[in-house]
Design a protein that fits this description.
Layout lengths: L3 E4 L2 E4 L4 E7 L9 E6 L6 E7 L3 E4 L7 E5 L5 E6 L8 E6 L18 E6 L1
Parallel strand pairs: 2-10
Antiparallel strand pairs: 1-3, 3-8, 4-5, 4-9, 5-6, 7-8, 9-10
Length: about 120
């Protein structure tokens, strides 16, 4: 089973930017769905973004036009560029290689430790 390791989180002020990375332990076939979900304390998981077949991207309405998901050419690292961050974006962010990541992240078991994003107002 592929292992995933998230990184790149941090603390920023509202309006700031961060770029998250997700390194996979093995090659991720281009047909794999890859994406990000997040979970804030006391809240349900929320799907954030998904990349399908290495090209088609989809986003939660809450992050559309602010976040961008991408993958490196080697298909071993997934990225999430986050701009115009808001306090409500504060959460632990996880990546997943599963097509349920955007609409049903509660069904997933995190394969990594996640990376914390904290946005202050």
């Amino acid at each position: 089973q592929v292992q995933l390791q998230e990184s790149g989180g941090g603390s920023v002020q509202s309006g700031g930017s961060l770029k998250l990375s997700c390194a996979a332990s093995s090659y991720l076939h281009v047909s794999t769905c890859m994406g990000w979900f997040r979970q804030a304390p006391g809240q349900e998981r929320e799907g954030v973004a998904m990349l399908v077949n290495g090209g088609s991207a989809d986003y939660a309405d809450s992050v559309k036009d602010r976040f961008a998901i991408s993958q490196d050419n080697a298909k071993t690292t997934l990225f999430l560029e986050m701009h115009s961050l808001k306090p409500e974006d504060t959460a632990m962010y996880y990546c997943a290689a599963d097509c349920r990541v955007l609409l049903a992240p509660q069904q997933l078991r995190p394969l990594g430790q996640g990376t914390q994003v904290t946005v202050s107002s």
